[in-house]
Amino acid sequence: MDYELPVKRKADDDDDPQNSTMWPAPPRQRLLRPAKRPCLRHPNDLEDIGIVPGPNADPGPASGSLLQLRKAPAIPIDASSSHIASHTPPISRTTLKELDLEAIMRNPQLRHDLLFDGNLQFRPTSTRRKTERAEKYWEAVTTELETGCTCVSFDVRGKPHPTVCACAHVSTPAVHPVVAYSPTLHVATLRTPSRIRPLLDEFLEVLLLVIQPLSAGASPSQTAVQQTEHLAQAAYIRSLFDPALIEQELKHKLFDPSSLFRAIGVTLQGHCAPMRDQAVDLMVQLAQTCAPGGVGTKADAVKAVRMCLDILELMKLASCLSLCRDIANHQLQTLRPFLIRTSGQFELRSFKTRKNAQGFQKTRQWLAAAHSSLLARTEPIVYHPNHLDYHTLQRNQQVYLATLKGLTDLIFTHPSAAHLISLPVSASQGSLPTISSQPGHPETTYLDTARLLLLSVDAVDLVAQYMFLLLFRQLRLSNKTSAADDSELSRIKCEIRDIGSARPGYALYCTGSAASQVDADELDKWRSLKQSVVLQIAMRAGGAGATTVDEGVLSLAQRWADENIQHGSALEGMLRNRLRDAVFHAVVARTYPGRESAGVGSGLANLNTGAASAPFAPLMTGLETLDQEIAALAESIARLALIHINTYLGVYENENFLEAEEGQEQR
User: Pfam families, alphabetically (predicted)?
Assistant: First the structure.
């Protein structure tokens, strides 16, 4: 700041003779100014009284902190925020228990998925959320080892903020986090308990858990020998791995991980498969670099611990799969039929435990809507070799067909654009994403939420293919060329699928209200795919030898596609209903009758063992080109329907779902 010097006053006894008098001038009266009221300094006003830093130093005092320990305002800090690293490692005894065979067999979702895929394999889950939380945890451990800081900061709105360290003012809490507030920066800092000791304790227990022997299939004498060897190994590992001692050595920077990890590596190689030896060697080599005089850092030591826990998780999974493989090899003829035979009772018991409070309200509405739709049909249900008149069927047969109709209608209900983005293009039954129950789905389909959504996306793709093929036919006719033959239609169908990145259904979500659910970049990509497909169709409409596109034909094709190939258009609704009926007839051909043949359970077993499909119902004109896609979708729906009916058909009959609905209509 620039300062100005005050104006110099002349002395009262001026030496100028012209101005001198005999009498001194009367004294001036000083103006009395009101005294300035003292300013109350607020307690949160801080003065930087630290040493002035050099020109290249960071701003602020060279020592001390701007952080004050005062009562913080109410800041909405979510303890489960992903910004706060977990206190326990991502691989622990709790997570490994999920890989136990008994836990798997008690898991309704896993047993249900096993009915769809006999070769289902269980792998460690690696969702993006889980990966991000694991990375956050290991970053926090590395930071604590390097700096001792366990702080994480939030602004006054509870949003993440760059860390403002409070370690100089807050000691490390033992159990619960401590909040410190900086009124100058308006930042709340949460200092969490140390993660080092819990990591060491859990690391040791996981190591001992994984190397313990499996008793399944072993004789009592072999089991006793294995237990004795395990106790000796456990005692040896505990003698080397003392969490309390290691914690103290880390605090005093005396810990040498190389010898400990050499011993752990030898132990792991004695228990794991040879395919893990390379990973174990890399872990030991990385720990060796952290020995005194080595080039390794504390981050490398943390990486070695992380590598070891990853190996232990894979070893635990391998032991579980080995046990499952032994069971599959020796008891395949009894285990699979047992799971199929008991799946209905097990899933129904699990459903009643889970959904007892909600009941069957949505299920009643869903089944009643399917029943009303079948009653309103004027034409019989196409069924080889005869036709089925729904009005003349017995009540249990009507319930059976209403369930098939309800599941088919559910799948031909448009999924949201968000689900179209999140669901994979192709997923096996064992790799379906985890999705919460949807608002419009009946309660009894809670184990099939992801499967139903994936089939709905397949149905959307089928509708889009149907509309593109219809556009191709109309362009050929308007071009006054010969009608397209089956080979041309098959070729253009493959080209539509290839250009559309195996998801031609994107074209239905490029305009209208559905487009508002998609971000701009994704929407531009979908529109580009749609335009590319229309361009290819316009070129093929000129004939087999056409190499250029007629501008008039292309303009006509684009206008037709923009008007019709979109979710909610009249033509889209009509074609979707036509496809839905064709798929429903194909599902009926594969699953009906259930009760009058060998029984629902027998049909379920035959379907899951790859039995030949039932005769396919004839298709309407224009759908012949899509017969393979319709058959594949119907096969998937039929499999799902048989498993669903095997569990809930008795409930739908005993609870009098249809009678209750008819009684309400009569009143």
Answer: Tcp11 (PF05794)
Range of the domain at 588: 361-414+577-666
CA 28 to chain centre: 86
Give the model confidence (pLDDT) of 234-260 as tens digits. Answer: 899 999 999 999 999 998 888 899 999
**Coil, strand or helix: which one is 190?**
strand
Nearest-Å Rg of the Cα atoms of the chain is 37
pLDDT tens figures, 497-511: 888 776 788 888 887
SS3 annotation, 609-644: CCCCCCCCCCCCCCCHHHHHHHHHHHHHHHHHHHHH
pLDDT at 505: 85
Q: What digits encode the pLDDT tens for the residues 524-546?
A: 888 888 999 999 999 888 776 66
Residues 399 and 491 in one domain: no
* Mean pLDDT across 82-95: 88
Give bridge partners of residue 388 from the DSSP assignment. 381
Q: Are residues 603 and 525 in the same domain?
A: no
Residues 290 and 204 in one domain: yes
454 within some domain: no
* CA 203/CA 209 separation, integer angstroms: 10
> Residue 220 and residue 216: Cα distance in Å, rounded?
10
| Spatial distance between the Cα atoms of 63 and 52, rounded to a whole number of angstroms | 10
Same domain, 586 and 624: yes
> Which range scores top for mean pLDDT: 55-69, 414-428, 512-526?
512-526
Residue 284 lies in a domain: yes
* Listed residues 566, 598, 614: the one ending a domain: 566
Two tokens, residue 132: 């991000």
**Both 469 and 561 in a single domain?**
yes
Q: What is the pLDDT of residue 581?
A: 93
Domain membership of residue 389 (yes or no) is yes
Residue 421: exposure state from Cβ atoms within 10 A (0-12, 13-18, ≥19): middle
Domain final position from 566, 588, 603: 566
What contacts 24+ positions apart, CB below 8 Å, involve 521-528? 522/421
Evaluate whether residue 96 is within a structural domain: no
* Interval 542-557: pLDDT, tens: 776 667 888 888 999 9
What's the number of domains the chain is made of?
A: 3
Q: What is the DSSP letter of 96?
A: H
Together in a domain, 599 and 535: no
The answer on 551 and 582 residing in a single domain is no
How do residues 343-395 score in pLDDT, each as one tens digit?
888 888 888 887 665 678 889 999 999 999 999 988 888 776 678 889 899 99
Query: What tokens were used for 517?
Result: 């659910």
- Going from the C-alpha of 101 to that of each of 112, 318, 331, 344, the distances in angstroms are 15, 11, 15, 20
